[in-house]
Specification:
The chain is rod-shaped and about 125 Å long. It is of the alpha+beta class. It is built from ten helices and nine strands. It starts with a strand and ends in a 5-residue tail after the last helix. The strands form two sheets. A seven-stranded mixed β-sheet has the order 3-2-4-9-8-6-5, with helices on both faces. Strands 1-7 form a two-stranded parallel ribbon.
Length: 360
């Protein structure tokens, strides 16, 4: 898993001091397009580009209407949806305010949830997903086209009785479950990358594991910031008196909450593994440095007596002035003798170091 290239802003520019509930399209938002899936146990209607004038007819004919708004530039369209479903202005503002911390809020006649949705299985690239649920409808709002709900749409098209008869509460559960499951390919990619980095560290094939470990650690911290609040939001949803979920759906929602806990536990485990690999990397660097220093120390130690002999016989004392002034300079074999002494000292020290185990 690689870290995303673009960093999310901390605060939207230009909104400081604005009144609560003011709707402003985020910078760089794409054009808005509204699609719908309206269904009953026996009938299904899909509309790719829905006009709000057709919405009352869908609501009167079908018990569940799933609206999906792609693109955040259409503030007027979002305001009209808010008027039709009586959505709270603060929740509508949060759906346009990027990025939001994952959370769940209950507004009596409807509920709101916001989370980060992964856009890739190998790269940590996410977008904000806002979710409104009320009696007979579900409204999802996302930044760009493409999501992880293809399986849900196929189940609806195939006429699966559980989702076609489950109402808006079961559809909401299915969306939550798909959202959480979309994190597991990222976590699997992170786990595989950790195993590869460990093998590379031990085999000394990777020359720059430190930067890769740092990127992976940063990505895991970001995932923790997304999954942790999402897990807490599901817990709040389970604790609230929620009329949209029957007992069967609550059992499925509890399983969805367990998946969120499992994802969070995996993130914590991978973070600990990343810290351990970073410590291993630093230990290996220290060990290699010690080996280099050991070799240099041995070489320097061997040359100490050689330098002494060479320096001693490099002194300019005239033997003709005094018989004590380096008489070896007058020997016929003085030079070979000095070389022999130096060679004997070097070989002797090497053998002694080897006996002491310094070359292991």
């Amino acid at each position: 898993m690689r870290r995303r290239q673009k960093r999310l802003p901390i605060v939207r520019p230009g909104i400081t001091g604005a009144a609560p509930g003011v709707l402003t399209a985020p910078e760089g938002a794409g054009p808005s397009r509204l699609s719908a899936m309206a269904y009953s146990p026996d009938e299904l209607v899909e509309i790719e580009d829905l006009s709000l004038d057709d919405l009352p007819d869908l609501q009167s004919r079908f018990p569940v209407v799933w609206l999906n708004l792609v693109g955040l530039a259409g503030v007027d369209l979002l305001e009209r949806l808010g008027e039709i479903f009586s959505l709270h202005r603060l929740a509508l503002e949060d759906s346009l305010n990027l990025p939001q911390r994952p959370k769940f809020e209950d507004y009596i006649d409807h509920q709101y949830m916001v989370a980060r949705m992964p856009m890739s299985q190998t790269i940590l690239e996410t977008e904000q997903l806002s979710f409104f649920m009320g009696e007979g409808y579900v409204l999802t709002i996302q930044e760009t086209a493409g999501d992880c709900f293809g399986g849900i749409r196929e189940r609806i098209r195939a006429g699966r009785p559980r989702i076609r008869q489950g109402g808006s509460g079961y559809l909401a559960y299915a969306i939550f479950d798909a959202l959480i499951d979309s994190y597991f390919p990222l976590l699997e990619s992170a786990g595989q990358r950790l195993e590869d980095l460990e093998l590379e560290l031990l085999s000394e094939e990777n020359r720059k594991p430190g930067s890769q470990l740092h990127d992976l650690s940063h990505a895991l911290v970001t995932l923790r910031r997304y999954v942790g609040p999402l897990r807490d939001a599901l817990a709040v949803m389970m604790r609230e008196e929620n009329s949209y979920f029957d007992e069967t759906t609550r059992l499925h929602l509890r399983d969805c909450q367990d998946h969120a806990r499992h994802a969070f536990d995996l993130i914590e485990s991978y973070r600990e593994m990343t810290t351990g690999l970073m410590n291993l990397h630093l230990s290996l660097l220290s060990q290699r440095m010690n080996e280099v220093m050991k070799v240099l120390t041995i070489i320097a130690t061997i040359f100490i007596p050689l330098s002494f002999v060479a320096g001693l016989y490099g002194m300019n004392f005239d033997p003709e002035v005094s018989r004590w002034n380096m008489p070896e300079l007058g020997w016929a074999y003085g030079y070979p003798t000095a070389l022999g002494v130096m060679l004997t000292a070097a070989v002797g020290m090497v053998l002694w170091f080897r006996r002491k185990g310094w070359f292991r």
